[in-house]
Give the backbone structure.
Amino acid sequence: MRKKGICIGLAVLLAALAVTPVQATKISDAKNAKSKTEKNLNEVNNQINSLEGQKANLANEVEEMDSQLVDILTSISICQEEIANKEEEIVRAKEELAAAIVKEEEQDEAMKKRIKFMYEQGDSAYLQLLLESKSIADLLTKAQYVEKVYAYDKELLDEYKDTKETVKGLKESLEEEEADLLASNYELEQEQAALEATIAEKKNTIKNFDSKLASAKKQAETYKSQLKEQTAKIKKLEEEKQKEKEAIQEQLALQAKKPAKGSNVPVAPTDNAPSAPAAPAQDETVGDDGYTKEETPGIPADPGDSSMGQQIASYACQFVGNPYKAGGTSLTDGADCSGFVQSVYRHFGYVIPRDSTSQRGAGRAVDYANAQPGDIICYAGHVAIYLGNGQIVHASSERTGIKYGNATYRTILSVRRIV
């Protein structure tokens, strides 16, 4: 009887040992599959985060460019309004010049007639004047009157000549300013076209990101479904394993009661053995490679290096008289307004944006009242280098090239200090 009980117990134990490895293999395979799916899901989530980050950066860039585009369109509007006003001034100047020329011609003709009359009359005119005079005093008075008439005519003629020259100079100055405005407007339109093309390109890139994100998110949902199924499968296998263990333990317990006292019945292993102590938590102190320093608090802006600014202004003056060239950056062969400013600053090691709209955001803003030599004076679609005493040097237009000018000849939108 005792041997029979031992045999039954061994049979139960062998059955348990035969079943357990099979269940363990199934659970191990299921957990491995789940681990692989989790890894795939993490990779897809990282991809999604990366795509979303890139998309957000692009969206911020587009938003910033949209803001720049608004600035450009505003500048174009201001520039076109200034062009319209300048054209009206040119029309008035042309009318005034025409009137001055007519007056000069009329007065010149009158002078010619008087001179011709005196030449044709000769001395008889003076003799007649003497005979008609009642006295020497009367004669002197009339002679003085004649001289005054001629002096007055000459004064009027000189005045009309001066007026004509003044109006002619004003007309030419207005036409130069109009050429400057037209050049500014052209540069602004080029900036607008380039910026709109870049915005369209980035928006298309964002659409591509949307497509990639949709695909990645779809893949992530697939992995999530797989994980859900695999988790449920593992849970089911573990429950089955637990039930089998419990059944074996129950059978072993029953068999243990049957043998006579002192019998030696093998006891099936259980999962209740104490587990190895957990490894102590690793010190999570971040090393130097992973440490990100906080940004240094901002230092208040100083008034600027006036000596360097003066050097920049003096250097820029060397190129007065050189040609203006749309899109150019050469100080000798031709530059537009922003190319001129950029190249002057590059000579001193300063890197500033290429176009006039972007240069209006470079450095730091200062009031025009506090402008120093070397500062950038910004207009709608145009920039210049300040020389001091209200004077600037700038690449104006194809008509005038690089030249000196008055800083307030147009509406100043901003003054920027780089040094």
